[in-house]
Write a sequence for this structure.
């Protein structure tokens, strides 16, 4: 009887962690649209490696500055086809990001890219450690 309970507890814990990760992904989406530098700072790890589909890599400070300054201006962001995989205190999130943008110096645009996010859970909660975007066919 005890053995049958243990897998349920593991599944319940995994479900809880997956739900927590889904919440922070949504918080990141909202913070990017709102250009909320305080939330972006809280949601990202100090060692953040933020990769764009163009091949540009940004540090945490560069990423937050690009959003806060309007250099990268997300008017809307919609996420689809999201899959979350857990391994201990690490979560891998894949999804498709569709967005309307209004980047400084570029004007209105549309983006549809594949995203890989790596989240770590530490004393501050779940934080984004790495992000890589790829162009979709």
């Amino acid at each position: 009887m005890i053995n049958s309970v243990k897998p349920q507890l593991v599944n319940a814990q995994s479900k809880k962690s997956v739900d927590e990760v889904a919440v922070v992904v949504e918080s990141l989406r909202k913070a990017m649209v709102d250009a909320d530098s305080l939330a972006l700072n809280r949601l990202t790890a100090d060692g953040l490696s933020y990769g764009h589909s163009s091949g540009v890599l940004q540090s945490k400070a560069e990423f937050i500055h690009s959003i806060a300054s309007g250099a990268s201006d997300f008017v809307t962001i919609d996420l689809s086809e999201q899959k979350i995989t857990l391994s201990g205190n690490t979560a891998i999130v894949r999804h498709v990001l569709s967005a309307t943008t209004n980047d400084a110096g570029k004007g209105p645009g549309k983006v549809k890219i594949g995203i890989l996010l790596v989240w770590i859970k530490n004393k501050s909660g779940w934080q984004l450690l790495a992000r890589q975007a790829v162009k979709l066919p």
